[in-house]
Amino acid sequence: MRKLFFALLAALTFAACSSDPVFHGMTTKQKEDYAKAIAGEYKGTYVIIYNDGGSDTKAVKKEGVQMTVTDLTMHSVCFHDYPVSLLSNVVVDRALAEALAGAPNVDFLVDYRFYNLQDTGDVNWGFEPAAIPLTLHYGGADHHLVLKLNSQTYFLLSKADLDAGKPFANQSVFQFDVAGIYEGNTLLQDFDDSWQDNEFGYLTYFQLNEE
User: Fold this and answer.
1) Helix (H, G, I), strand (E, B) or coil at 210
2) Could you give the dihedral angle defined by the CA atoms of residues 4, 5, 9 and 11, in that order, rounded to the nearest 10 degrees?
3) 24 membership: H or E segment, kind and range
4) For the segment 140-182, what is each residue's pLDDT rounded down to a tens digit?
5) Which pTM does this prediction carry?
6) How far apart are CA 2 and CA 10, in angstroms?
7) Cβ contact 81:107 at 8 Å
């Protein structure tokens, strides 16, 4: 009986382990095929959450915006019409804040990559925002600024969703935040990422529209 018990335990343990996903590296051809499956234009809404240094967190929505995912040639995600003007709500320098308030919306790119492929055909995919270049005129001069972005986005693209032509069906939100504003190597203002009271914070979600 004891031998039978251990035999059953070993069989159950093997079954449990064998059900775990197995990950593989991806060939260039696989990456190209999966990139074609996710390439396209996606409509959505920016939801911007910010704290201007007080005790209340505020939220602003900008609807009718678009995200474009390219194939492997550029392997990038382009966020269109990003409203940098709203950043003026959390900028301490008054001249900079006024210049930001009048700034037009911008398009910016982030690179994406595939991390690994499972036996099921599901694939780990993600992007890490870098920076938004921005030129503003204030104080009688042009200022070439960089909005440093933060927050890595990783998630699983299921093979079933890819085959159905809805690659991001299980991932409806893409997240990034502004970590700081720089002019050259000079930090003009940084933003807290812990979302505590009396700390400046500025977080953006791109929320896909439901079909």
Assistant:
1) coil
2) 20
3) strand 23-24
4) 999 999 999 987 778 899 999 999 999 988 777 898 889 999 9
5) 0.83
6) 12
7) yes
